[in-house]
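Translate sequence into structure tokens.
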Amino acid sequence: MISAAALSAMALAACSAGQITQTSSQVAAVDGASGGDRALGVAVENITVLIDDTTGEASMQFAVTNQDPSGQEYTLESVEVDGQEAQLESTDPIAEQCTLIADTPSHLESMPQSNSDCTQYTTVTLENQDWAFAGNLPVSFTFDHLDEPIEVTATVSAPTPEAGELDRQYDEGESTTELF
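Result follows.
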């Protein structure tokens, strides 16, 4: 006779059997593009070209992670956007299980910084070639120890405003957006 505990265990195992398959193709809930080998190598996530809507200055945001289980360190050598080499603040090699975060100077200033030696922060700037918001641009990341660059298509966007900067007013069924 099969006990209630054994039946419960079988039922629970059967319920979760398809979970890996159901979630294996899901990606992180971030706005930017992603590329590279997320499981066994270098991955670049949340890649976005940012255009300041006031000054027109261009920059980028992205996060590089090193998931290489061999212990290999990787150095980001260059970033190219639409054929133009971006100005990359110098970075150290990215060790296994470590991260490089790039963002605008104002976002990096307001971002809580990790005390870990395993997280680096940098800025990337480039010349705005009259890129339009909501457009897409080819972006190429070159690392030492990788045979080919990581290439993605990234969205052009305005930086996320600071909390309280964006005031949405709703009058008579219409909405307007004003930046302060």
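Note: The mean pLDDT is 83.
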